[in-house]
Design a protein that fits this description.
- The protein is about 30% helix and about 25% strand.
- By secondary structure, the chain is α/β, with parallel strands linked by helices.
- The protein has three domains: about 210 residues, FAD/NAD(P)-binding domain (3-Layer(bba) Sandwich), CATH 3.50.50.60; about 110 residues, FAD/NAD(P)-binding domain, CATH 3.50.50.60; about 110 residues, 2-Layer Sandwich (Enolase-like, domain 1).
- Strands 1-2-3-4-5 form a five-stranded mixed barrel. The protein has a five-stranded parallel sheet with strand order 7-14-8-9-10. Strands 18-19-22-21-20 form a five-stranded antiparallel sheet, sandwiched between helices.
- The longest helix is centred in the N-terminal third of the chain and has 25 residues.
- It is globular and about 65 Å long.
- The termini are far apart.
Length: about 475
């Protein structure tokens, strides 16, 4: 007889394991199924966490090489031990995956390693990683299978010379030349890692700017800063072919609107043109679950069918780990008969480059398109005392507020610790605060957060620090 559960979750990434933990806390008998032997999904194993470890390590390496002498810190000859850096990254991942396993055990969640497939209403068949099958029965099934790197037609990824984000995290040597296909978040983050470690990086982007979905002013300054740092860009350009030779790769490109092409030499090509939902082979048709043309599961307040729910990258909305986490908690609470809610208008987005880039809410372009009347306040980190003393002065904070009510509609940052500073703005927006609320809130001096306050003051044209 099949094991009986209140909730069976397919996928143990940020959405899945948070859903499982909350369900366990609420007294629901819960199981989670994942294809990987290690918990945490793509985010923890081959995405967010290992990439941030390499971003941090490579930033410290470049900083030591570029800035320490000017601050009076002598370190002798600097050297890179890539093998040790990769081991340090792997150790961080290992510790966190074990932490997830501990939390699931603590909350009495059963874990099954294998591929889950829905075979009928309330039934999940687990094909185990090492052979054999187990059938689970549940009153509720939660699909939290996440996403995978989107392929580029005609280009075969081998994860050695032509790599996705997964392969880019495990290169055994710094490539002489790297071509990155895609100037989105992943391309810029991983491209910047390998540039700092010594690679000659060229980014090819089909659209006419980097970070196409972000605020235009932020995107323009980011492009200028990355060029200044040494990254080369081919914007409004498409890749038509990648040819393998014994020691080199040849990347054929041409203008997006047609015209004379260019061939780029590379040792490694990183393909990161986006991600697609992992929804194939899940047996969705067995219970009538529908997907859209992108493969995303259609839902009504996360309900995909009777007794079936969907969260995270497998459905609509931004493909962000924290969005999946909040949805996982909301669904667990709905299953338990409580209220479950996620404010999709206040989900921060962060690019962990140097400087960091962060946003929450609507961009200027979106407000203009919607015909919203708004006010804007901006403050440069060059004028922030803590940024000056730290030597990290690139970027600014911009706050957009309703022209009549002063409610904050969006905030966009590029600069030091932007990913941390955006949290204050997200909290303010969650409580529908005005720019004046932030402007009248005392901030410690000297701190980077003062730039947020000054930008809020700028909405009413009363900046007080320079």
């Amino acid at each position: 007889m099949a094991d009986q559960y209140d909730v069976v979750i397919i996928g143990a990434g940020p959405g899945g394991y948070n859903c499982a933990i909350r369900a366990g806390q609420l007294g629901l008998k819960t199981a989670v199924v994942d294809m990987r032997d290690k918990l945490g999904g793509a985010c923890l194993n081959v995405g967010c966490i290992p990439s941030k470890a390499l971003l941090h390590a490579s930033e410290r390496y470049e900083e030591a090489n570029r800035d320490f002498a000017g601050m009076g810190v002598g370190i002798g000859k600097l050297s890179l031990n890539l093998k040790k850096m990769m081991a340090w990254k792997d150790d961080a991942v290992d510790g966190l995956t074990k932490g997830v396993a501990f939390l699931l055990r603590k909350n009495k969640v059963d874990c099954f390693a294998g591929k889950g497939r829905i075979t009928g209403c309330g039934r999940v068949l687990v094909t185990k990683s090492h052979g054999g099958q187990t059938e689970l029965s549940a009153r509720n099934i939660v699909i939290a299978t996440g996403s995978e790197s989107a392929p580029l037609p005609g280009i075969e990824i081998d994860e050695e010379r032509i790599v996705s984000s997964t392969g880019a995290l495990t290169l055994e040597a710094v490539p002489g030349k790297m071509v990155v296909i895609g100037a989105g978040v992943i391309g810029l983050e991983l491209g910047s890692v390998w540039r700092r470690l010594g690679a000659d990086v060229t980014v090819v982007e089909f659209l006419d700017r980097v970070l196409p979905g972000m605020d235009g002013e932020v995107s323009r300054q980011a492009g200028r800063l990355f060029k200044k740092q040494g990254m080369a860009f081919r914007l409004s350009t498409k890749v038509t072919d990648v040819k393998k030779f014994k020691t080199k790769l040849k990347v054929s490109t041409e203008p997006a609107e047609g015209g004379e092409g260019e061939v780029l030499d590379a040792d490694v090509v990183l393909v990161c043109i986006g991600r697609r939902p992992y929804t194939e082979g899940l047996g969705l048709e067995a219970i009538g679950i529908k997907t859209d043309k992108r493969g995303m599961i259609i839902h009504d307040h996360w309900k995909a069918a009777d007794g079936a729910w969907v969260i995270g990258d497998a459905t609509s909305g931004p493909m962000l780990a924290h969005k999946a986490e909040d949805e996982g908690v909301a669904v667990a609470e709905l299953i338990a008969g409580k209220a479950g809610h996620v404010n999709v208008d206040v989900i921060p987005n962060v690019v962990y480059t140097s400087p960091e880039i962060a946003s929450v809410g609507r961009t200027e372009e979106q407000l203009k398109q919607a015909g919203c009347k708004y006010k804007s306040g901006s403050f440069p980190f060059m004028a922030n005392s803590r940024a000056r003393t730290n030597g990290h002065t690139d970027g600014f904070v911009k706050i957009l507020a309703d022209a009549e009510t002063d409610e904050i509609l969006g905030a966009h940052l590029i600069g030091p610790n932007a990913g941390e500073l955006v949290a204050e703005l997200a909290v303010a927006m969650e409580f529908r605060a005005s720019s004046e609320d932030i402007a009248r809130t005392c901030h410690a001096h000297p701190t980077l957060s003062e730039a947020v306050r000054q930008a809020a003051m700028g909405v009413e044209d009363r900046i007080m620090q320079m």
